[in-house]
Design brief:
Layout (H helix, E strand, L loop, with lengths): L14 E5 L1 H11 L9 H6 L9 H8 L1 H7 L5 E8 L12 E13 L2 E10 L2 E12 L2
Antiparallel strand pairs: 1-3, 2-5, 3-4, 4-5
Length: about 140
């Protein structure tokens, strides 16, 4: 990718993030976030959730991969922001679920590209106002 090739409106290659209940458990261990909503359907439902949900930080971090894959060097990401707008429920089966991530360049100025990200799960937007800034190589 050459900086001169980057312009407003460019769409990054889409990214599908597949995860299973086992992935949620492994992330809980890595992050030391053992909140029962991430492993117990009973506890998640008691709080009004549809069942076990993946950690919001997993969704946010994994979604950024659309940008890091595109730019080729994670160190070029200078900022990233997102709001959590809906939970990602993960069924207790062998199939799991998928979060679809899309992104496009919304601004380019002074060697920095601003990327807007959209992440959807089962027809619901799961990240809002998601933006990353990337220093162009």
């Amino acid at each position: 990718m050459k900086p001169s090739d980057i312009s407003v409106g460019i769409e990054l290659p889409p990214l599908d993030l597949h995860l299973t209940r086992s992935d949620v458990v492994r992330y809980a261990g890595a992050s030391t976030d053992f909140n029962p909503i991430h492993h117990s359907d009973r506890m998640a439902r008691a709080l009004g959730l549809p069942g076990v949900v993946v950690h919001g930080m997993w969704t946010m971090g994994a979604a950024l991969r659309i940008v890091t894959d595109w730019v080729g060097d994670p160190a070029l990401v200078t900022s990233y922001f997102a709001r959590f707008t809906a939970p990602v429920a993960v069924p207790d089966d062998d199939t799991g679920t998928t979060v679809q991530v899309r992104a496009r360049v919304v601004a380019v100025s002074d060697g920095v590209a601003t990327i807007a990200l959209e992440a959807d799960h089962d027809g619901h937007k799961v990240l809002g106002a998601a933006r990353a800034e990337v220093r162009l190589p």
